[in-house]
Amino acid sequence: MQRQETYKTLEGKTSSEFKDRGSRFLGFAIPIQHVEDVKKELKVLRELHPKAVHHCYAYRIGFDQNQFRVNDDGEPSGSAARPILGQIDRFGLTNVLIVVVRYFGGTLLGVPGLIHAYKTSAAEAILSNQILEKNIENEYSISFDYTLMNEVMRILKKQECTVHEHKMLLFCEVIVGIPVKNEAQTKQQLIEIQGVTIE
């Protein structure tokens, strides 16, 4: 089985609006990294829309895409969050939260109507966003003398590494994400520079 090297996620936060028989469905597509982010984003949306009757959501996290959750928030089971998750999966996304906030318009839509509304809101929120393909990375700590800074940074840039942290102590220490597709090559190039340690 081939190792997965990239994943698809969203660039930023976007929203959409869908109306059906007086009900308003506001879709929010949000990139996230951790489960804790879900609670924070839901809290913000509940404060922004206190009069909404439902805040239904679905998320998927992780490169194996095994970590997910759906919440119908009082809507009939399977009528809201499952269709939302269906759109996350249709676009092949991960590290994404989609919340659909519903303002009830007085007319019951029935389960097929709800499925259509939540699915459409989620799809429109995603489509108004930018889908990014990012490298899956493993994190390393690299230590080296200041004189080697340019050489190390040149390799990291060339191999599309992400520098997460820079510590300037007696030595330079950088915490970097090395893309799995370039991992062996990058480590080899860094080890070949005398005075560089990588762990």
Model description:
The protein has 199 residues and is an alpha+beta fold. The chain folds into two domains: 6-133, Impact, N-terminal domain (Ribosomal Protein S5, domain 2), CATH 3.30.230.30; 137-198, ACT domain (Alpha-Beta Plaits, 2-Layer Sandwich), CATH 3.30.70. Helix content is 31%, strand content 36%. The protein is built from five helices and eleven strands. It has helices at residues 35-48, 81-90, 110-127, 149-158, 183-191; strands at residues 6-10, 14-20, 23-31, 54-61, 67-71, 96-103, 131-135, 137-144, 162-168, 172-179, 197-198. Strands 2-3-6-4-5 form a five-stranded antiparallel beta sheet, with helices on both faces. Strands 9-10-8-11 form a four-stranded antiparallel beta sheet, covered by helices on one side. The longest helix has 18 residues, at 110-127. The radius of gyration is 22 Å and the shape is elongated. The mean pLDDT is 94.
What can be said about this structure in brief?
The two termini are 27 Å apart.
List the total number of helices.
5
- Topology order in helix (H) and strand (E) letters: EEEHEEHEHEEHEEHE
Strand content: 35-45%
What would you report as the Rg, rounded to the nearest angstrom? 22 Å
Count of DSSP E strands?
11
What's the architecture of the largest domain, going by CATH? 2-Layer Sandwich
Q: Kindly provide the name of the CATH class of the largest domain.
A: Alpha Beta
What CATH calls the topology of the largest domain is Ribosomal Protein S5, domain 2
